[in-house]
Amino acid sequence: MNRFYLMLMFVGTFFAAVSQILLKQSADRTYNRPLGDYLNWRVITSYGMYFGILFLNTWCYTKIDMKYGSIIDTCCYVFVMLLSCLILKEKITRRKLAGNLLIICGVMIYTMV
């Protein structure tokens, strides 16, 4: 197992969460033109990041064991929750925490079997 590829996937997962925050920010705004919802810098940047991360993760999956990738990808949910709190000023509720813990525990159990 190469730590470089694991770290690369971890960084990619963080940027996937950042792109989701950008999409959320774009959805919260109103635009004057009909295509403004789809053709603005936040949406274009976000999907560009997703596209790049898709290729990055695909390449990293060829270098590491698949079970480690699923654990790293699960971190995206935690990143989104934390970034939503920091950037969008959303509250972290008990329900969100429980949901994130349930997802993480499920992936951990899946990878152990």
Describe it for me?
The chain has 113 residues and is an all-alpha fold. The chain has four helices and no strands. The protein has helices spanning 3-27, 41-61, 66-86, 94-112. The chain is flat and about 50 Å long. The model has no long low-confidence stretch (mean pLDDT 91).
Individual helix count: 4
Please tell me how large the radius of gyration is.
16 Å
Structural class by secondary-structure content: mainly alpha
Please give the largest β-sheet.
none
Range of strand content: under 5%
For the terminal residues, how far apart are their CA atoms? 19 Å
Order of helices and strands: HHHH
Mean pLDDT, to the nearest integer, reads 91
Helix-residue proportion: over 70%
Instruction: Find the count of extended strands (DSSP E, 2+ residues).
Output: 0
Principal-axes shape call: flat
Ranges where pLDDT stays below 50 over 5 or more residues in a row are none
